[in-house]
Design brief:
It is built from six helices and seven strands. The protein is an alpha/beta fold and about 210 residues long. The protein has a single domain, classed as Vaccinia Virus protein VP39 (Rossmann fold, 3-Layer(aba) Sandwich), CATH 3.40.50. It has a seven-stranded mixed sheet with strand order 3-2-1-4-5-7-6, sandwiched between helices. Helix 3 packs across helix 4 and helix 5 runs parallel beside helix 6. The longest helix is centred in the first third of the chain and has 17 residues. It is globular. The termini are far apart. It catalyses: L-lysyl-[protein] + 3 S-adenosyl-L-methionine = N(6),N(6),N(6)-trimethyl-L-lysyl-[protein] + 3 S-adenosyl-L-homocysteine + 3 H(+). InterPro entries: DNA_methylase_N6_adenine_CS, Efm5/EEF1AKMT1, Mlase_EEF1AKMT1/ZCCHC4, SAM-dependent_MTases_sf. It holds the Pfam family N6-adenineMlase. Its main location: cytoplasm.
Length: about 210
Amino acid sequence: KMDDDDDIPQLSSHTLAALQEFYLEQQQREGMKTSQGFNQYSIGSIEEDWQLSQFWYSDETASCLAKEAVLAAGKGGRIACISAPSVYQKLKEQNGEDFSVCILEYDRRFSVYGEEFIFYDYNHPLDLPENLLPHSFDIVIADPPYLSEECLQKTAETIKYLTKGKILLCTGAVMEEQAAKHLGVKMCKFIPKHSRNLANEFRCYVNYASGLD
């Protein structure tokens, strides 16, 4: 079992111990997962919390968005995932040396990812750690937790602060006008799917020539 740790040298032994304890508890809760071996970055390794309006993407959608992010970021690129943990998990699963990634998320369970986790509350869009420099990410992927103009507008402040230019936004189809207004993004043909069907139609929006059309 020890060999598994070799893949994640960037985590300190303290974080690793916490991670292992966390997974142990989780595996005991869901005994069925232990038999298949367990990947800390797989979608669903942290369960959805509907009170926080969390809905994970399907595996296929997360893969597609992660692939797009890597292409858009370019070699050695930096990717920020705002409230889009399933894309973050997919990016980490790829184990790419060609890019780095941060997750900005309100749900502190994601702090198991160590230094890449940044606590984020959209109500305080610029309350960010000092080491997150303005315009330091090649692409920002964001999935605001609520379909409201207020939530989009505040998340947009964070996106505009962090990105060098490229934006990939996932939100409801009903938000098309607000997305254009606050971020200058246009709807893509690609239709994101969630692991559970949501009542609201979801779409992706970009402000650059993406592979999602």
